[in-house]
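The aim of this short unit is practical: by the end, you should be able to scan a pair of folded records and say something sensible about each. We start with the first protein, listed as its amino acid sequence and then its structure tokens.
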Amino acid sequence: MRTRKKDLSLLLVTVLSVTLFTSCLKSDEDVPPPPGPGAGTTTYKWLAIADSAQASLNLFWSPAGKYFTSTNSASSWTQYWPSAHGLDVLVDLYLRNPSASLKSRMDEVTAGIKAMNSNSYINFYYDDMEWMALACLRAFNATGDDAYKDITLLLWNDIKNGWSADLGGGIWWRKDNPSKNAPSNLPAAILAARLYKKFNNADDLAWAKKIYDWQKSTLYDASTGWVYDNIEKNGTKNQVWKFTYNQGTFIGAALELFSITNANGYQADAIKAAEFAISSGQLTDISTGVLRNEGGGDGGLFKGVLVRYLTRFIIEGQLTPAVKTQYINFLKSNAEKLWSKGTNKNYVLFGSDWVTAPGNTTDFTVQLSGIMLFEALAELKDLALVE
């Protein structure tokens, strides 16, 4: 794959704009309050922080290639599935502040993914296509552009080919069929349910239910809420790996089906999966309440996926006030820690450890998780759920 150097002039402009953002933010978020009532507290301007996080995406943008790069200092493409999440966070911004220029960037990202993927949206990995389809469906809902709908339906038709009766059902991870994974089934269940909501095709709802049922019966521990990652072709289940994004997509799939059917079992499942992520000590440092460091590369994106679907559960679920407050406080605390401790504010770069700031380089996947967290707080702020 040929790599291209970034446009340095754009990079300099971006650095300057991010610096201006953080200069303004520091005056509001980083200066300790004067003595007196409320001393020891800090005010976080979540909308402004989310804007500065979004502005940092330009540090990862190749103007010549029309793609996001793997790090802010690299020229190589970040690959298919992180690019899909790049589109998804642009949709987050578009929903807050729509503009023609942002729509143009969304179109460029989408076209760039196709160009870098051998001029096709169809991919070898079913989970990669599911992330892309979810992002495109959200882009269609936000913009009304039928091009995004067409991509979504193209991908969905191919994704359904990944289902087989082997191992009792489920969608294969890849097209060479080595395993069936939570990441290739739960996003598909979310997609199918959302397609049903949008187009009222009963077949899509049937798909959502059967995918979810297979996942729950095969790759889920109902006693703890732990979502297993995969089952090999020979029937061996991976009962070692614990990932935040599997918990997140299970929450998301259960929530979608609960919102359609109003069957309380789905919401109970989502609560169980959320509690495992938040309170078990497996994915969160109990002493700090911060989600664990899952590294860079693919793992850098995992926390952001959990954040995205936990946020939807807070907003769209029918939670008791106590549980809703618990989840809100969990996200708020993580965001406060990331902004105060885990951010290099010279460039607004996030670390994979949300209490340790990175140097001058970070992975695109890691950056996306930070952006998703701050977009979540911006949405909660808009809804008056946080100060």
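Turning to the second protein, read its sequence before its tokens, just as you did above.
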Amino acid sequence: MTNKAKKRKAATVFAIPMACLFASSIPIAAEEPNYDFSYEMYGPVTVMIDAGHGGIDSGAIGANGVYEKDLSLQYAQTIGAMIQSLDPSISVLYTRYDDQVPWVDEQNTLDFEVDDLNGRTNAIMTMAPTYVLSVHFNAADDPSASGFCGFVKGEDASSQAVYSKVSQYFQEMGYSYDRGLMTTMDYPLQIVDMNMSSSMLLELGFLTNYFEVSQLSDPSMMNALCMQIARAYVDTIHGV
């Protein structure tokens, strides 16, 4: 795993008042790849995308200086936009749409990590989406560590199917390698475990690996990876 605090452990969920949750009309600056996929309108399905970290929590810091919180937000918004470009009948929500985490009083919190996790979990439970995707990036002391991986509930066949497609599509485009899909029976994760949705935390690569973080930060590669993740969700939803 990783040496950084990744918000793995479960914590008690408090009823924290939530700020507005944001629909997927957020403009995405990056140009979408010109893929030609045709889907029938499906609905009603909702995918809620959680961009990891934010606010005073930068997450991992990449070998090129990029903050995980910023990269996860870019990926989350791009994935959401691409899901809707493939099937506009699928609703997309986000836990955050900028660097703010309004469910945490950053000036007065006694434990930012607990309050942050509780706020995100409360948002997911309130909205009760069909799918939850929490976007993260990994880090390690070993700068050669690389690869992507995922975490799901052991009984969550839908998220397991999504991950299988993500792995297939990533490998088809020659991106990194699959470190495997793990279950929260071995690695408890509040953001995955404490809701009734099909939920997955996806670690897209190692920011501490200079080659990998350079790939992940490249706009063209970002768009390509996000399209494969969007395809994986839409294909799973459509039973492809």
